[in-house]
Amino acid sequence: MPVSVGPHSDDKTWKRLVVQSQRGWEEVGKLERFKKGVYQVPSLVFSTGSPEDLKEDKSGIVGVNALFKEGEELYPESQKKFKVVGVDSAGKEFERNAAKIQYFEKVYQVETLSVLRTMIEDLSKVKSVKFTPAKITSKRQLLERVGSAKVVCNASGNGMPKIFGVKPIVPIRGDLMVLRIPIDKLSQRDLDSFKQTLWMRRYYLFPRIDAKGKYAEVVLGGTFLKGNSDLSPSNETSKEIISIWHEFLHSSRQLPDLFAPGHTCTGLSSRQYKQSRSSFVSKTMGSIKNKL
Prior knowledge:
292 residues; alpha+beta; two-stranded antiparallel sheet
């Protein structure tokens, strides 16, 4: 699965790590217990063709492919012709266009929470493995716990500089929203639609199935706020995320106008569409307000 990263000085090492990660998930996806939570999906990246799009792209696909020679990309771009169709508030279909739409096949999708929980369940059954939740605030405290055992630490978290003296970490806030639906509440047509991810600048929409096959989820994002370590949910950010994807799926306004003020929609006046979207956003926020 691709990842989005900032500037780095060693393309060769980064390329090797990305390839190893891809191969690792390929092997995990072959295991029966993980097939439903680790799988390949097509990904669509929508672009206006501006430098701003590449700068804000959070799919990671284009950035990862840039590490490889032409024709050897980890995520080959498909030459298939396709049409992306939306449905406006009046029930009329329209084609979702953009200056550039890239279609990538075989991008790994991982339902991380359920997959990690399944891994922990499996390891917990091994007598030599023990999970002990603890808050570590110093290197000395860690060494007192592990004794003479060899330890590998993930030093990428915000607390690592203080504990281990590593290079300071810049926190980045990323907001997302998750709609979780029991599988038995969805039709086969609904499940068939869970087969592609959408990326548009820093915004993304991807469906996923949990590892045990009990739930379907739709993940909507997002933000990428450097230097922001605030973990408090934001109503305004939630409204923005809902609004932009409502525009994308139900407004015929095309990129880059989609990011500009104003509202238009095939079959509806500007005012009618604005009211329709406002009503939808309010209902959605009302359903999640207890969790914010």
